Amino acid sequence: MQADAPAVLVVSTRAWSEVSRLSFRLWKYGCTIHALCPPDSELRNCMHIVGLHSFRAWDALGSVRAAIDASGADYLVPGDDLAFCLLHRLRMQYPNYRSLVERSLGAASGFATLRSRFRTLALAAGMGIRIPACVPFTRLEELNASELGGKFPVVLKRDGSSGGEGVAMVAGAAALPEQCAWIMRRPGGAKNLQRLVLFGDPMGFAEAFGVPEAGFCAQEMIEGTPAMAMFACWEGRILGGLEAHVVAAQGRTGPALMIEVFREERMKRAGGLLAGALGLSGFFGLDFVLSEATGEQYLIDVNPWCNQLGHIQAAGQADLAGVLWAQWTGRPTPAPGDKSLGNAICFYPFAPEGNLVGKKPRHTRWDVGGDALLVVNRLFKEKTELVAHVRRLVCRALRVRWGAALPGHPVHYFESPGD
């Protein structure tokens, strides 16, 4: 058991805002927060971060070791799949970090399973959790010969990808060879150089050379509404969870821009079964689809890192950051959220169209985050800087992410379950 102010190192290889909001909640409870992140991460604009650490090109694992040593971390919090992979490799290659990684993320026996989407879903299916038809493959011929061969639409997925990247939806046979070649292509030098030059981000090289060969799987596509759950757990035991369905997302397979919190016992059951089987600690998330045709829920992904729900306060429930902090420190679990909190949450800086069209939730809470004022001031300042303006134009020309939505990935609204 740690003191009331455990040192937490957040490891993030992406410029996602939700990890900064989670770290802010942990800081509010008294944790000392350090961050290892790319140059364009929102974590670098957060006043609550006491130690900022950078990735070095060609030596991502050395960067993790240096950040742990400098921070004196009691716990590690990965913010995406690549961060989880780096911590997994650290545990395997450097025994002196093994206890820290396992204390933060759980039993070593579950790590290899979590590195493979197919193995994780196969484990879930063996425990009675409903999943889509799913097959692994290493080349197109294997996919064509599998039980999903000739059945469309299908979804192709690459291990180690996050936020809707490394996912391809294939509508018919004509598009399969091209999409299969794309999903199996290892991140190339041009893209990595682009990330390094435009963002000063060396993690593109870690993605190409610092991770094991990815596995691939194909899933039956289930038409319906995406849903997600996030859990805080300790040594295989669920401490708390939060479930939500997606109202709006960045494209059909991208990250959620707006959610509606709801209670779903089947999701809780799935989380409890997987946490126990894998001996998990820390945060993990599950992605589901609520079938439009049958109303059944299908587990489509397991994320061994924190998703967008870790900092959310919901009516009648304690936030998951506070639940895990209570476990770390031996303090009482924080009080549940006030009953007046709305269930519909819009993630800053996304603005819903007309406060939601059709049958969508009407009372929307805008999730801004604890250090949002500083971030907003930074964004405003950048608008007046010529260098930042030129960088945005170049990024837009190269179809690189900048802002809330990707070019070619318009906001997609989903129907609420039961509408």
Explain this structure to me?
The protein has 419 residues and is of the alpha+beta class. It folds into three domains: 7-108, 3-Layer(aba) Sandwich (Rossmann fold), CATH 3.40.50.20; 129-220, 2-Layer Sandwich (Dna Ligase, domain 1); 224-370 and 409-413, D-amino Acid Aminotransferase, Chain A, domain 1. The protein has helices spanning 18-28, 60-71, 81-93, 98-105, 111-114, 117-126, 140-145, 176-184, 189-199, 203-209, 265-278, 320-329, 372-383, 386-397; strands spanning 7-11, 32-36, 49-53, 75-78, 134-137, 154-158, 167-170, 216-220, 224-234, 237-250, 256-261, 282-291, 297-303, 344-347, 364-367, 411-413. The strands form three sheets. Strands 9, 10, 11, 12, 13, 14, 15 and 16 form an eight-stranded mixed sheet that branches. Strand 6 (154-158) and strand 7 form a beta hairpin. The protein is globular.
Summarize the structure.
With 419 residues, this protein is of the alpha+beta class. The protein is 33% helix and 23% strand. Strands 9, 10, 11, 12, 13, 14, 15 and 16 form an 8-stranded mixed beta sheet that branches. A 4-stranded parallel beta sheet has the order 3-2-1-4.
Key features?
419 residues; D-amino Acid Aminotransferase, Chain A, domain 1; 4-stranded parallel β-sheet; globular; Rossmann fold; single chain; 3 domains; Dna Ligase, domain 1; 8-stranded mixed β-sheet; alpha+beta
